[in-house]
Amino acid sequence: MPVPNLKIEDLHVSIEDKHIVKGFNLEINGGEIHAVMGPNGTGKSTLASALMGHPKYEVTQGKVTLDGKDLLDMEVDERARAGLFLAMQYPSEVSGVTNADFLRTAINARREEGNEIPLMKFIKQLDKRMDLLDMDQEFAQRYLNEGFSGGEKKRNEILQLMMLQPHFAILDEIDSGLDIDALKFVARGVNDMRSPDFGCLIITHYQRLLNYITPDKVHVMMQGRIVKSGGPELAEKLEAHGYDWIKEELGIEDETVEA
Amino acid sequence: MSTELKTLQYNANDIESFSKEQNEPQWLTDVRMRAYELVQTLPLPKTEKTRIIGWNFTDFNYKTQGREVTNLNDLPSEAAKVVGAEDQYAAILVQHNGHKAYHSVSKELQDKGVIITDLQTAIREHGDLVQKYYFKAGKVDKHRLSALNAALLNSGTFIYIPKNVVIEKPLQTVYFQDAENFGLINHSILVADQGSALTYVENYVSDHETIEGVANLLTEVYVEDNAQVKFGAVDYFSKDVTVYVNRQGRVGRYGQLEWAFGQMNDGNTVSENVTELIGEGAVSHTKAVSIGRGDQKQSFDNYIVHIGTNTESNILIHGVQKDQAKAIFNGRTKIEHGASKSNGDQTQRVLMLSEGARGDANPILLIDEDDVMAGHAASVGRIDPVQLYYLMSRGISRTEAERLIIHGFLEPVVEQLQIESVKAQLTAAIERKVR
Ligand SMILES: Nc1ncnc2c1ncn2[C@@H]1O[C@H](COP(=O)(O)OP(=O)(O)O)[C@@H](O)[C@H]1O
Ligand SMILES: [Mg+2]
């Protein structure tokens, strides 16, 4: 398999005619983990949602390719089957559909009709991954995200990531609302995915998660675009000194997309 | 069609000679003749927000051929699909175009004196018993369609469970029609005598390829004191069959009637379900799921009447509307004066999948007694685009995602159905309808 590649060029995104992402550029290859950091309201989730194809977000300019193919031209489900995964900041709840049924449907959507995953094999894979994430077996039979706590939803997103084995994942605030133990399990799940065939974009506004998943590159997002990039040391500096020094250095007064 | 009713192509002489041909007793001929007069004068049912004027309730053939088989495997495949495995049922009765096609009754039932047979045979062999219950809970003069049922009756089933007889395995009847323009005018009666208990499943199916037709169905269920009936029904007529269905239950002291409905018709449907809780402590629970698709229009009315003291009722309905389908879900809980300490509750939920689909839930509480409890909940909503996005973001196609959401929406009702075979049949029917 050729090395996976996600390339975002001059991306602009609006919601309800409000211009939010304003000229975002980034390229990630398989084997790399990038972190996008930034204060609240700087357009991080908007970027992630637009890449996945959320119906409310409109791409007004720019180009995104996944392994050379035009991502923006695809329907949401096609993007997923092309290898993209988004762990959402606020996952939906679907009543009456068990986690297990949902996951099996999602796996089979990637397989030819008549070549569905054998039930026993599926159960074995599911058990193994739930173990690794320290999830209780009962979550397989619970309705999808219904009544899950914030932390349980995050773990469930990572469980889906591991079951679906995409070659690109965007993790949007996967660390928010997690205590330190849960954070370690989530990190364990992501690290388990690490390979030359897997690229990852971690969106966060704390450095905490990056203690457990070492990124190759760190980018700071403000006003809907990347304003600074560096290595893992940039994340540590942000942890120690906050974002103000960057704003000063770049002459930014309001870092949000409202500016 | 400017006239309210397409004219009936049968006159009084036709009906009288049909009755004679079948050697019906005079009382039944009399019911037919009186009903025929009423067909001319009574109005159609008053359906909430659904215009049924112009629907074909009257233009059909009521005499046609059926085929008797000796082996279940020889049934037409649409019928065979819904017939359960023989060892899972205490009795199976299949009727094809209004004629008995297959009939098997376990020795246990025969020994215990249970009657389950087609109505014609029952009238011949147990005439007095049939007469005792015929149109006692149901009303000939309710409206034009009930009168039509009485006038043109051409099919039916009679079931009688003697006192204190308890039957574990369910009884099943299957009505299958595949004759062009056939009108199934069916009257079924189920009597659970005092202290008895049974589970009964009725299935209506028509050939989904070809036929137009009419179905006018009346079922009377008598749950006598301390008896328990689990009544399951899966209706699955094809899109060119116009359906009027009335299921009428009457429950005595401490009797219990559990209705479980899968209303899966593809054509225009008027459905009335009426339950009278007459005796003290009578209980009735109604659970129904339905899926509307294409451009069909449906009117569902669930009416519970609390008459005895300490009676209890609950209605739980989930309906899905796809494409251009329209449906109204009327839920009426009436607590009569004197029915003190009664409790009536209803929940109706409607999910619409497309812009063109319409669903209305209309909960009504009519209460003439102070010392009671009653409640209702209703919700009507469209499919959540963010939920759909979430499922699709995992690679699931839109159709498949909708399928999951529909199953999920109906699941809380399906899960509570107490009859396994109805559950299985419904899951299969839902699967066919959401594809
Ligand atoms: N669904 C929405 N409706 C309206 N405005 C939105 C919506 N989502 C985001 N925005 C706007 O975009 C800005 C950036 O939001 P978001 O992308 O969620 O930022 P971040 O993830 O960096 O905190 C928000 O401050 C808000 O003004
Ligand atoms: Mg965010």
From TrEMBL, chain A:
The keyword ATP-binding applies. It holds the Pfam family ABC_tran. Keywords: ATP-binding, Nucleotide-binding. Signal peptide: none annotated. Residues 6-248 form the ABC transporter domain. InterPro entries: AAA+_ATPase (IPR003593), ABC_transporter-like_ATP-bd (IPR003439), ABC_transporter-like_CS (IPR017871), FeS-cluster_ATPase_SufC (IPR010230), P-loop_NTPase (IPR027417). It comes from the Bacteria. The keyword Heme does not apply. PROSITE patterns: ABC_TRANSPORTER_1 (PS00211), ABC_TRANSPORTER_2 (PS50893). GO terms for molecular function: ATP binding; ATP hydrolysis activity. SMART domains: AAA. Belongs to the ABC transporter superfamily. Ycf16 family. This is Fe-S cluster assembly ATPase SufC.
TrEMBL record, chain B:
It comes from the Bacteria. Residues 97-172 form the SUF system FeS cluster assembly SufBD N-terminal domain. The gene is sufD. InterPro entries: Fe-S_cluster_assembly_SufBD, SUF_FeS_clus_asmbl_SufBD_core, SUF_FeS_clus_asmbl_SufBD_sf, SUF_FeS_clus_asmbl_SufD, SufBD_N. Transmembrane segments: none annotated. Residues 177-409 form the SUF system FeS cluster assembly SufBD core domain. Belongs to the iron-sulfur cluster assembly SufBD family. GO terms for biological process: iron-sulfur cluster assembly. This is Fe-S cluster assembly protein SufD. It comes from Terrilactibacillus tamarindi.
